[in-house]
Amino acid sequence: MDLVETWREELRFAPGRVTRALLAAAVAFSIALPFLGQPAWIVRGTLVAITAIGVMGQNLLVGYAGQVSFGQAGFLAIGAYAFAHLQGLPWLLALLGAGLVSALAGVVVGFPSLRLKGPYLAIATLGFGIAAYQLLANVPALSGGRMGLAVQRPSLLSLYWTDVALLGVFALATTNLISSYAGRALMAVRDSEIAAESMGVNLTRTKLLAFAISSFYTGVHGALFAQFLGHLEPELFNVSEVLTQFVAITVGGLASVEGSIFGAAFVVLLPVIFGGLRWAVPVFFGASILAVLIFEPGGLAGALRKARLYLEQWPFR
Amino acid sequence: MDRFLQYAVAGLSAGRLYALVALGLVLIYKSTRVLNFAHGDVATFGTFAAFALLSRDHSFWIALPAALLAGAAASVLFYFGVLAPAQRKGATLLGQVILTIGLALILQGVVVFAFGTEPDRMPFPLSDSESRRFGPVYVSELSLGTLAAALAACVAVYLVVQRTRLGLAMRAVSENLIAAQTLGIPTRRVLAFAWATASALAVVAGLFLAPALLLDPFFMLDPFLKGFAAAVLGGLGSLPGAVVGGLVLGVAESLAGAYAGIAFKKTLAFVVIRAVLQVLTEGLLGKPFKERV
Fold first, then answer.
1. Helix (H, G, I), strand (E, B) or coil at B67
2. What one-character DSSP code corresponds to residue B120?
3. Least CB–CB distance from A290: residue in B93, B99, B228
4. Cα distance from N-terminal residue to C-terminal residue, chain B
5. Torsion sign over Cα A117, A122, A127, A132
């Protein structure tokens, strides 16, 4: 991956006219989608919006902060079940509660993981995901036993509007976060822990922040997913969920907000295209990861950025 | 006491398989610095190759080498076709891990396509239900076979790594890649050999595990996670550590299942590892890693 070394180079990435036009088109498209009268596509749009929030969280932790974590399935489950148990509260409060419980779990997992790096961190977080699953599967008071847990499900259209609006809020928040001090600290830790520390970045606080924010996002993803399904079982949150998220952040683009949304759309819509050929989905997922990492390590977002730079400077390059 | 012994033996039996998986993971990690998330799926692929031959009434002695070759070929192909070009382009550690996830997904899809998701019984020359008695402990034929295979595999790996020129080259490459290249060691072929050996070990584990369970495309997921955990427990940089980690994990798990309740058997393994890592951040036998500035 090319590093940005000068301020002038950095400026080239600042959003210009093309970005604004694309953004306007995306917003217009998501407003127009429900009026096309295709309920199936409204469902898919909702699912893309929900997934994109979780992928964004995973991207913050893996793409921006460089912490390879396999515990997302656990945070997803915690968010979903916390939401299901908080149903008596007003909706927004329950959603916030689900996110906060998940963020707390993120800090609890992240804190002992501060000493661990690379593969050791991966196994510690993976263990958390499996432990969360086992706990849910074996404690009926949490998971509602064999019958599963029912979650109240609003109408499809209102679900679509709230989830898309939430995606907008989260995307805006993430964009601001990564250009703030905290976001730059995350990237500094990813690129070199020692260099970051000697520049005055508090390693402990930054890593914990990354875990907390990322699991907050994933918790909200879980809560919205629970609401979307209307029914919860522990089997929903297994290790393959984590693999899907890795596919999403890789294909969409590591360390990129718009990439997270592209990646979410990719993993949600691809199985729709393959429909009957269920075995082809993992093959295509795998092949696209390989292709992306070898030919375009920036993912879809990187390809878009290249295209945009080309267009903006068109006659002169 | 008898009960304790019986559970300990059962744990060792499972632990041997974890040790085989862990040995392969460590071999790959030590040589190429990649965490191979496709390890379980390579084993599944090889085991299904054996299943295809065995269910067409071929002899076990044809199916075994064929399965080992199939697993090894898949990972050598991956190494030369994908990983080596990516490493030449300077892929990050995370990127390489994601590449192996890609391989895992592809192999998984291929196995589902070729054999479907219905569980099958694996025809096997050794039986799981017939057992021999040693003092107070009963051991099944399959478990004895597993012991023999695991021992043979470990001894073979030890001899190759410690006693041959190829092993010397492997150690040199793992110690310092550039120095090894300067000395004229064909590093890529040596690394490909390490991948092939590791995959063959995983396939052995898969082959001896399959008759005890039902064979479906996801049957290696759990043993792979345990093997991964065992490798981390023993220290990812240490081959003996992998074997020790596997055995310790197997026994701990079996005893926990017996005395603390079966429901949290799987979780306990990870709790143990978490606790060990808290004190020894590089596992039981790993050397502390010092970062250069």
1. helix
2. B
3. B99
4. 54
5. positive
The pLDDT of B155-183, averaged and rounded, is 90
> What are the chain A neighbours of B82 within 8 Å (beta carbons)?
290, 294
| Euclidean distance between CA atoms A267 and A271, whole angstroms | 7
Angle CA A119–B208–B158, to nearest 5: 60
Give the Cα separation of B31 and B87 in Å (integer). 13
Residues of A in Cβ contact (< 8 Å) with B228:
123, 126
> Which single residue is written with the structure tokens 């950095």?
A10
Distance from CA of B100 to the nearest CA of A (A): 9
| Angle, vertex CA B28, rays to CA B80 and CA B159, nearest 5 | 110
Q: Domains in chain B: how many in total? A: 1
- Out of A123, A280, A289, whose CB is closest to B228? A123
What is this model's ipTM? 0.83
- For residue A60, give how far its alpha carbon lies from the nearest alpha carbon of chain B (Å): 14
CB contact under 8 A, A286 and B273: no
Q: What is the pLDDT of residue A1?
A: 47
Average pLDDT, stretch B223-235? 87
Structure tokens that stand for A309 in this block: 């730079």
Q: Kindly state whether A281 is in contact with chain B, defined as any CB-CB distance less than 8 angstroms.
A: yes
The CATH number assigned to the domain with range A17-27+40-316 reads 1.10.3470
**A with B: how many residue pairs have Cβ under 8 Å apart?**
131
The residue in chain A having the minimum alpha-carbon distance to the alpha carbon of residue B35 is A119
3-state SS track over A274-293: HCCCCCHHHHHHHHHHHHHH
Residue B37 lies in a domain: yes
B198 touches chain A (CB under 8 A): no
Angle at B163 between CA B160 and CA B166, to 5 degrees: 55
- Tell me the average pLDDT across A125-136: 84
**pLDDT tens string B35-92:** 899 999 999 999 999 999 988 888 888 889 999 999 999 999 999 999 888 888 877 7
Q: What is the CA radius of gyration of chain B?
A: 19
Kindly list the residues from chain A whose CB atom is less than 8 angstroms away from the CB atom of residue B278. Answer: 112, 115
3-state helix, strand, coil in chain A (%, to 5): 80, 0, 20
Instruction: Give the start-end residues of each E strand in chain A.
Output: 149-150, 231-232
How far B65 CA lies from chain A's nearest CA (Å)? 26
Q: At A284, give phi and psi (nearest 5°).
A: -70, -40
| Closest residue in chain A to residue B114, using alpha carbons only | A279
More reliable by pLDDT, B110 or A6: B110
Count Cβ atoms below 10 Å from residue A204 Cβ, excluding itself: 10
Question: Is the CB of A130 less than 8 angstroms away from the CB of B267?
Answer: yes
Closest to B272 in 3D by CA, of B240, B247, B290: B247
Which pTM does this prediction carry? 0.87
**Token duo for residue A253:** 């683009």
Task: Retrieve residue B83's tokens.
Answer: 């990983």
Domain presence at residue B292: no
Which residues, other chains included, contact B195 with Cβ-Cβ below 8 Å and sequence gap of 6+?
Answer: B28, B31, B32, B72, B75, B76, B78, B79
Chain B residues whose CB is inside 8 A of the A194 CB are 291, 293
**A 21-60 residues with CB below 8 A of B?**
none
In a domain, B14, yes or no: yes
Q: What angle do CA B74, B80, B84 make, to 5 degrees?
A: 130
Q: Which residue in chain A is spatially nearest to B34 when comparing CA positions?
A: A119
